[in-house]
Design goal:
The protein is an alpha/beta fold. The protein contains 11 helices and 15 strands. 38% of the residues are buried.
Length: 334
């Protein structure tokens, strides 16, 4: 998953628009992508339906397209207009045509209807504010969020591109932010979402592919990526069924001292966890009685010591035992 700043994402979208994928088409793809993720993730939770909190910008448009698409998949959909939409908004008209309910929050003076919607829905789409916000928020908007976070909210909260009130560059947040269970980013993860305190409100991350041309210069200029577990799994070579411990190499870990015995234990266990076939711990000899009971599968290289710390001359012992070593770690707890 690409990791971008807000400026980089704007440049990508601008070049994409110039190349033939219009901003309107990007919104369609974004909204449909959000709906597909919601359907795949929460498709069994549809009896109470989905409520979208809709802002005036692109995130609001993405959310309306997602609501229309979900209505076509059998969901009961409701759009709460937190901020005014353009007059004769086609995206809003399409939600109404799909038999979705629409509420202008300003007309709900006592908030009774909105509170009921949120209390009975299964999924909430947060599409109020997007990546271009400036903190602090306007007082009236902060007051609105303060009140909403005190409501009984749906079990599943999905942020559209980012949780509303998060600075997608710095990671700073507004006073009140609706915490997401899932954030669905458009084409790339925004860098601020991985910074604290923003990361506290993001939940899991997924990315919707906007289908932009791969040869866009702005895309090719992106140098940062978020590595997923799936990507790591694809890189790792398959393990043969007839493999044995010698198939996957030998890691030698030079670690530990009397004051930092645990560092050696953690490093040795980690070496096995990442897939090393054989792990050997080179430690000051007084540590062996303590560690051997914790790590019975490890083999040992006992080093000379002074008061429980590796002593001069230990390098000779190490160099004499490197023949079968395929990975060497030196440092934890020395």
């Amino acid at each position: 998953m690409r990791l971008v700043t807000v400026a980089e994402m704007r440049a990508i979208e601008k070049e994409g628009n110039a190349s033939g994928v219009s901003y309107a088409e990007m919104m369609e793809r974004a909204g449909r992508g959000v709906a597909e993720v919601v359907q795949h993730t929460y498709g069994q939770s549809r009896p109470g339906g989905v409520v979208g909190l809709v802002g005036s910008g692109n995130n609001g448009g993405d959310t309306l397209v997602a609501l229309e698409t979900l209505a076509g998949l059998g969901w009961r959909v409701k759009a709460a207009l937190v901020r005014p939409r353009p007059e004769n908004d086609p995206y809003l008209a399409r939600v109404i045509q799909a038999h979705g309910e629409v509420l202008a929050v300003d007309s709900d003076a006592d908030w009774e209807k909105l509170e009921h919607w949120l209390g009975t829905a299964d999924v909430l789409l947060d599409g109020v504010l997007g990546t271009g916000i400036q903190l602090p928020l306007k007082p009236e908007l902060e007051a609105w969020f303060e009140r909403v976070v005190d409501f009984r909210l749906p079990r599943h909260i999905v942020a559209v591109d980012c949780p509303s009130g998060v600075d997608c560059d710095s990671g700073e947040v507004a006073r009140w932010v609706i915490p997401a269970e899932l954030t669905i980013c458009m084409d790339a993860v925004k860098a601020g979402l991985l910074r604290f305190p923003a990361y506290n409100f993001v939940g899991s991350l997924q990315v919707v592919d906007l289908g932009l041309p791969a040869d866009l210069k702005a895309l090719q200029a992106v140098q940062s990526y978020v590595v997923s577990g799936r990507q790591v799994a694809e890189i790792l070579p398959p393990r043969p069924k007839d493999a044995h411990k010698g198939t996957f190499g030998t890691a030698l870990v030079v670690a530990g001292s009397v004051n930092f015995t645990g560092a050696a234990a953690l490093a040795g266990e980690a070496a096995y966890r990442i897939g090393a076939g054989l792990v050997r711990l080179a430690v000051p000899s007084p540590l062996h009685p303590v560690l051997s009971g914790l790590l019975p599968e490890i083999t040992w290289l006992l080093l000379p010591h002074e008061l429980g710390v590796i002593a001069e001359g230990a390098e000779d012992v190490l160099f004499a035992n490197l023949e079968r070593v395929t990975a060497l770690l030196v440092g934890p707890g020395l």
